[in-house]
Fold:
Amino acid sequence: MAAFPDIEKIQYEGPDSKNPLAFRWYDENKVIEGKTMKDHFRFSVVYWHTFRGDGSDPFGSPTLQRPWDDGTESVENACQRARVAFEFMEKLGCPYYAFHDRDVAPEGATLAESHANLDAVVQVLKEEQERTGIKLLWGTANMFSNPRFMHGASTSCNADVFAYSAAQVKKAMEVTHELGGENYVFWGGREGYQTLYNTDIKREMDHMGMFMNMAVDHANKIGFTGTFLIEPKPKEPTKHQYDSDVAACVNFLRAYGLTDRFKLNVETNHATLAGHTMMHELDYAGAQGMLGSIDANTGDLMLGWDTDQFLTDNYIATQIMLMLLKYGGLAQGGVNFDAKVRRESFEPVDLFHAHIGSIDCFARGLEIAAAIRADGELQSFVDSRYSSWDGGVGAEIESGNHCFESLEAYMLEKGEISDNQSGRQEMLENLINRYM
Ligand code: XLS
Ligand code: NI
Ligand code: NI
Structure:
């Protein structure tokens, strides 16, 4: 029994197509800068929003029609839902997916029962992966929904919660490994604080560092070689999340000796909540050699919380793709749609419209970014802006051949700096608009 009987596999039909269930820009085999579109993006569908979202919000009940779901928390329903998920991803043509342990299988009355439920559903996921060739981009553990995590997981004031979290992550990692997952993600659901009056930051951060080191040790034990990813987010649900932004995460990873095995999973809406652009977060992560993967979505500047909307803004997609091309792509990472349809978009077909639109937006962003790079005007402006470092005193400083004394002697002799050049911001913004 098909869940989407009226929908065929989504095809590329080109920019002139008016078919809402076709790609206009995403041609998975098209080669850009030496790589197919499919390999540039490694698009991934998220289990939690797409198959567990029900449209409820703090003000209202579920709205989304999901006829295949019987509404129970049974393992049978979870297995049935898993098959539907793969039908959806196959028809969409997305090569990857991502999940939390508790999205795919119901939590049991005990930890042992939760483990067993997960194992049962994982068998279905495995069969479906084999049947379709769709792969697991990453797994993660939900350590924020159950009330036991009210004070956090690895940063909880309650040592038993740390232990419970270790047991849960151990299992989630093993399952991710069993399914051939290419990464494992830590999004610090409630790893932060609501008030500093009751919080020992130093102790909590040390515990989190210790926890991640235990994860690396366990990966080595079981032979999981995937990349660990931390997903920065500044707030929500806590007032302050420790993994606030890319810079804070890089600092954390360095402080606790984790940079060999970890990279970052950067999310558009989290960047905005942190008061940064996505371009900033990606550039910073890339510059530090820490760019691992992307959670693709967008917020709403009028709302100011993590609204997880599907990205359809060509400018943001272009900026993202400029950064990915600049840093040589995502390697083992991917573009993961951590996004949900609005509760008013309640029909199953809306899931297709949402993903198709965002996939196309990224494909178009890639085309535009590649065109900007091929013309080279932007890059040659940046190169010439820094040309004082390519020879003379600049090159001497960069190669480590100066100190304050020698630079004082240089400037005393020269008297004044060579003239500054205009930053030409407006001209460059106009240049970008030529390609849009
Ligand atoms: C929440 C996060 C979450 C992670 C996975 O804001 O984006 O969905 O991606 O735990
Ligand atoms: Ni996310
Ligand atoms: Ni998010």
Notes: The first strand starts at residue 11 and ends at 12. The chain has 16 helices and 14 strands.
